[in-house]
Specification:
The chain is an all-alpha fold and about 190 residues long. Helices cover about 60% and strands about 0% of the residues.
Length: about 190
């Protein structure tokens, strides 16, 4: 995974740094509460459901992708304005990952690597800034509005910013919690 980025995210680390990020990620994900998930799901659907109206044909997979991306953004507390960064980073990382696993055996794609790193860096910078804002109590307006609808909803970035620890904002902004999750029902 190191060739896909800076090597500072959990999957590219070994030993104590990996264990520390894993513990932080698991603790963070255990804080997710069922009561506020439905309002987040509903909001993600409401935002994405209008997208097929803007195209000629209906693509269920594209709609599902947009709902999932928007849900993830809301769960973490990204403002709606950061959705294009999240989407671009997801697409570039996916293409680079597929190339790293399969494609590199057939054809070099140096531009793909640069694109993945550039979009990932843009998202990481935005997350770093957003974590700093959450740290001083500045919640994006669209997230604050959602908090009014979803009782108990505290974005994961807010929880990360509030969590005690020795991690820097830059380290927290690349914490990869997708690989590790609590398997008990929420």
């Amino acid at each position: 995974y190191r060739p896909l980025g800076s090597g500072s995210f959990m999957l590219a680390l070994d030993g104590a740094p990996h264990a520390q990020q894993r513990l932080q990620g698991v603790a963070l994900l255990k804080q997710i509460q069922r009561p506020y998930l439905q309002p987040l799901i509903d909001s993600a659907w409401d935002i994405a459901a209008v997208l097929p109206l803007k195209t000629r044909g209906f693509n269920a997979a594209a709609l599902a992708e947009q709902v999932a991306l928007r849900f993830a953004g809301l769960l973490f507390g990204l403002p709606f304005s950061d959705h294009p960064l999240l989407e671009a980073a997801m697409r570039a990382a996916y293409q680079q990952l597929v190339h790293q696993i399969v494609g590199r055996h057939f054809e070099p794609q140096p531009l793909l690597d640069s694109k993945a790193k550039a979009t990932g860096a843009m998202l990481a910078m935005s997350l770093n800034t957003l974590l700093g804002q959450y740290l001083v109590g500045q919640v994006p307006n669209d997230i604050r509005e959602l908090q009014r609808k979803a009782s108990g909803y505290v974005p994961l970035l807010q929880r990360l910013a509030d969590a005690p620890g020795e991690s820097t904002l830059a380290e927290l902004s690349v914490l990869d919690t997708r690989q590790y999750r609590d398997t008990t029902p929420v």
